[in-house]
Amino acid sequence: MERVHCDILILGSGGAGLFAAHHAYDRNPKLKIIVAAKGLVGKSGCTRMVQGGYNVVLNPNDSIDMHFKDTLKGGGMINNQELAWTLVSDAPKRIRELETKMGCFFDRNPDGTVHQKAFAGQSFDRTVHRGDLTGIEIINRLRDQLYAKESVTCWDEVRAVELLYNDDQSVVAGCLMLNLRTGKFIVVESLAVIIGTGGGASMYRIAAPSLEKAADGMAMAYRAGAQFTDMEMMQFHPTGLLAENSRLNGGVLEEGLRGAGGHLYNSLGERFMQKYDPERMERSTRDRVARAAYMEIMAGRGTRLGGVQVSVAHLGREKVLQMFPGMVDRCKDVGRDLSMEPVDVSPTGHFHMGGVTIDKDCFSGIPGLFVAGEDAGGIHGSNRLGGNGVADSTVFGARAGDAAAEYVMAVKRHKVSESQVDLFVEQMMQPFKREKGENPFQLRKEVGDLMWEKVGLVRNGLDLKYAIDKLAEYAERVNRISVAGVRDYNLAWHEVLNVKNIVQIGQMIAIASYLRTESRGSHFRTDCPITDNENWFKNIFMKKGQNGPETEIHHVEFTHVQPEEIFGEVARVKVAAS
Asked: What is the pLDDT of residue 46?
């Protein structure tokens, strides 16, 4: 078994992982840093898929305070306010770094200032972008600049399996890795580990991320004993492309379509947002628009493909081609012309607002473990604003890199627990020793159907209880999966770990959803359709216990802004969820 030593191991090569690598290197260029990606570094992950943009205060008529309050309002006031303030106040520094240091080019106004477009849920147009291919611009520059840094090593197609403690279980001392190409295990001993692997929205039947995004980082952190915040808060993007059996099915058609004046229609030709948010219409927040679309579909007003339709044709073909070339090409791949006709869309699993509990420097509470990006919870509350996601990854990726570098320069190296290594390798090899066991691909499909139907956009107590019991059954079935063949590029073998991870995170989502007996943001229950500001300004915290997740519920700490400043007279009462 290969053994590798480094100072900082970074899991994931999206915005959080790459920014962490840059900042750790800048703190001390002598640090040995490894960036490991399940796919190809800079060519995989969710940040690269970002079409829309990056929320940041640049205009003198805008303010950090306005961005902060928009973020809290969108999050239903259960955000960790220290983290939300860090997001909005650091974002201007990170966008300048992207342009002046990393070499990103963003769209400009005729006077040379950075162009900022409209995104839903915001009081000011503050979304910086590069056409509708912003993520590619950011990731390409971050990756290219990283290759020039000699002490940084990038690993393609090497996935993380388990975090490793030292012998007395006091410090995370490394990680067990698996090379997809060779099927061989690698033990990495590091002074610090930064998790930035992205979420696991692919646990839903219709989902925006690629199937490789299987909640790996969150699941490893859970098994290592990390605390989690508000796991019930799962965002569904309202406009996922419907493409039947194509791999593009569920892929996001971004917020910019609605921000630019796009319309949403049901099968009757009605602009249905008039019924759900007549003031903001299609520019309402993601949770409201996604739920409205789902309600229309469930009421029988969906299209033949089982969705609704988005149209920007009224903006004019030339304008659409100029503003949204990436989305036009994506729709063309499935035979639709976005510039000329309506396109079928559906809500799609998109983003975890819940995740590992961190402080503003991304410390997880476990010595040696830092978490950034979508794997971390609390920043966005009950609903993330479009454009705050890529800002989140760069802001907290940078902070994780800075903090990890400072940490490793002040601590001694620990050896990993050899008994843990042996145990985890043995567990990983078990599927090869079974004959005629469960099929991992079939089990993943069942998990996706269950999560979509019972723990999706619209929930209720009976469905959630059923899902909790069913997920416990799936957890047992994971232990009966069998695989055959060789270890190199064995996709069935990797699917075993994928299913294990999404089942564990799915259990937390279902349990937290059952406990939150109200509707807030992305979490909507038909049996509790009230946003209960009287009793539920609370966060649900979870961590691994002897018999599954253990929970604690605590009041939100309003460290900067009180609810009255956002919600006025209804700040402390029960109101109908919209």
From this structure: 85
Tokens linked to 54: 């990056």
What is the DSSP-derived secondary structure letter of residue 501? H
Residue 437 lies in a domain: yes
What is the three-class DSSP state of 545?
A: strand
Expressed as residue numbers, the domain containing 331 is 236-348
Average pLDDT over residues 287-316: 96
Number of domains in the chain: 2
Residue 471 has pLDDT above 80, yes or no: yes
Active site residues: 237, 258
From residue 288, alpha-carbon distances to 52, 294, 387, 534 in Å are: 19, 10, 17, 21
What per-residue confidence (pLDDT) applies to 145?
Answer: 95
Q: Based on the fold, state whether residues 336 and 438 are members of the same structural domain.
A: no
- Read off the pTM: 0.96
248 shares a domain with 340: yes
Does residue 157 belong to any structural domain of this protein? no
Six-digit token string for 376: 């971390």
Only one residue has tokens 């291919």, namely 133
The DSSP secondary structure of 133-169, one letter per residue, reads: -HHHHHHHHHHHHHTT-TTEEEESSEEEEEEEEBTTS
One-letter amino acid of 411: V
Stretch 193-213: mean pLDDT? 94
At 42 the pLDDT is 87
